[in-house]
Structure formats: C-alpha cells, structure tokens
Amino acid sequence: MYKIEEVRAAMIAAMKAGEKDRKDTLSMLLAALKNKYIDKRADLTPEEETAVIMKEIKQTKETLELTPADRTDIIEECNKRLAVLNEYAPKLMSEDEIKAIVEKVLKDLNLENPSVSDKGKIMKELMPQVKGKADGSLVSAVVTSYFK
Q1: How far apart (Å, rounded) are the C-alpha atoms in residues 81 and 75?
Q2: 2-88: what fold?
C-alpha cells in the first residue's frame, strides 16, 4: 500500500494548492492502484505498483499518438498527465544497461552469433530481468541489433 498512500497524500496536497490538472491525474492513478489492490485482495508488491503506473503512462502515450494535431487541448492535457505520472514511475534503464544484460543472457545461453530464430529464447530469459525497468520496444530493438 506504499504508493497508494503516497499518491493519496500528493492528491490532497494538489487539492489544497488548487492544482486541478495534477489532482485529476493523481485521482486517476489512485483509482487504478486501488482497482488492482481490490482485484488482488492483498497489498500490492512494488513491482505490481510499478506495472500499474507504467500501464497508465503507456495508455496516455497511446492517446497522445492517436490525437489529431489540431486538438491541442487533448495534447496539452496528455503532456501534463505524463509529467505527473513520470514522477511516480521508476527510472528506466538506458540502452547501454540493456545491452549489458542482453550480452549476459547471450553468454548464459551460449549464443555467440544469435539468429532471428533465437529471439524467443533470448526474450524469455531477458524479460524477467528488465520487466518494469526498461521500455519493451527499446529492449526488442537492442536484441534485434544482435542478429546478423
């Protein structure tokens, strides 16, 4: 319940400060965390809290991508929402950090010259190590760069 309490306190502070956009985003995040807590019927682990936050960020980014350029109101709202959500998201791994883990996985699997057909094996070993810590599309791009 760590993040739920933190988000609730921040939401109350935003209400007192009159920051409507921030309060709305925190309210949405709090609802998502509570729903996950209710579904699980137990306290959320830090990984589960991070997964909820990352899901909210992903949904907001998708909304931003699908919004027509002339709808500046929606674009502005999504950017404000992303700024608030990113405060609660963990710092994502850099490309160099991902490469180091990929190289370790390749070594563990004894794959010196991986091919496209090995991608499934590599991703199966790799994803548990980077889940919630790295952007999935970046991980996939890094793994693909190792194929000859």
Answers
A1: 10
A2: Hypothetical Protein Yqey; Chain: A; domain1 (1.10.1510)
